[in-house]
Design brief:
- The termini are far apart.
- A hairpin with a 4-residue loop joins strand 4 and strand 5.
- The chain is an alpha+beta fold.
- It folds into two domains: 25 residues; 172 residues, no CATH class.
- The chain has four helices and eight strands; from the N terminus they run H-E-E-E-H-H-H-E-E-E-E-E.
Length: 244
């Protein structure tokens, strides 16, 4: 029996009859289908991405719930006693939405750098400089402390306001903290969160006249009878606060 010289392997063993031809045709079709299927699979693999994420997982911080410390002063994110964005304790919550002054926080123990209410026992005069014997424009309301402090720094070379403005607690820049107005100091006192010295007399940034400024005896529930004037040259404890 002659063999086809163009074939090799098992298919070259004999000249195919009709049955052999049918079997050969079926084998060829199956081989072609297998090649086509492999090609389709390859194309599908090239056109599809892996269901598994690659690279670092990115967390959408905007989707995270806001806290008092991270909420940037957003209305409704803080209550009295929370830690604020400056690392202090919230002592005042504004009942209305007033961006920038929704809350007030006070410096507390454990912040870095540490704050000393008593200036190592020397205490803080209200003002050293022209403002000690001249009238400085101030107010007593909640929210007035920042402007009061601005005006005191402009009129004093040193003293309570200057020391507070130099403080950088909570990682904030110098100038971020203020001396509380009388209204703010009272809120801090009655909140009970600041750790003020009981029965201590603290300076506010509110002035009476050219020679005297107001302070408050704290630790007895914010009694207005303890809101009294003192000579600006006298030294008293001080606690920095800030609105946010």
């Amino acid at each position: 029996m002659k063999t086809d010289p163009t074939l090799s392997g098992p298919l070259a063993s004999a000249t195919p009859g009709a049955g052999s031809q049918r079997r050969l045709g079926r084998a060829v079709r199956l081989a072609a289908a297998a090649v086509a299927g492999a090609a389709l699979l390859g194309a599908g693999a090239a056109g599809c991405s892996s269901p598994q994420a690659s690279g670092p997982v990115v967390i959408d911080k905007e989707a995270l719930p806001l806290s008092c410390a991270t909420g940037g002063g957003a209305f409704g994110t803080c209550v009295v006693g929370d830690t604020g964005p400056g690392g202090g304790k919230v002592f005042y919550v504004n009942p209305t939405d007033s961006p920038g002054s929704n809350y007030m926080e006070a410096v507390v123990a454990g912040m870095t750098p540490a704050w000393d209410d008593f200036d190592s026992g020397s205490y803080y005069p209200w003002c050293v400089g022209a403002g000690q014997t001249a009238k400085v424009t101030t107010g007593t309301a909640i929210g007035a402390g920042k402007t009061n402090t601005d005006n005191m720094v402009a009129a004093c070379t040193s003293g309570a306001a200057n020391s507070v403005r130099a403080y950088t607690g909570g990682g904030l820049a110098a100038g971020s903290w203020s001396l509380p107005s009388l209204g703010e100091l009272n809120e801090l006192d009655v909140s009970g969160v600041g750790g003020l010295l009981d029965f201590g007399f603290y300076w506010s940034s509110s002035q009476v006249d050219a020679l005297d400024a107001l302070g408050q005896g704290v630790g007895i529930g914010g009694d207005v009878d303890r809101q009294v004037p003192d000579d600006k040259s006298d030294g008293n404890p001080v606690r920095p606060v800030r609105a946010f």
